[in-house]
Amino acid sequence: MEHQTIQTLKFKVTGRVQGVSFRYSTMLAAQKLGVCGNIKNEADGSVSGIIQGSPIQVEAMIEYLHKGPRFALVESVQINAISPINVKTFEILV
Questions:
Q1: 38 an active-site residue?
Q2: Mean pLDDT by 10 residues, the chain (94 residues)
Q3: Is 80 marked active-site?
Q4: CATH 3.30.70.100 applies to domain 17-92
């Protein structure tokens, strides 16, 4: 079996991303893709979080973050690689 690399990325999404179920829909997408991490609202109106998974899973999540749920209007997505964290699920942080 081939060794699978785990990628861990920190993200920040700006635009109309609060009040449109962005966090909840991102959690559902992450669960569907098998990605771990978290997401939270920021005081500046953005959402931020961490995604961790295989390169294919992480790439699919990045694509989702650029689109978001139906009523979202994503203006920008900032991505930074970070060291892996010890997470087993994807959760919404308050």
A1: no
A2: 77 98 98 97 98 97 97 98 95 95
A3: no
A4: yes
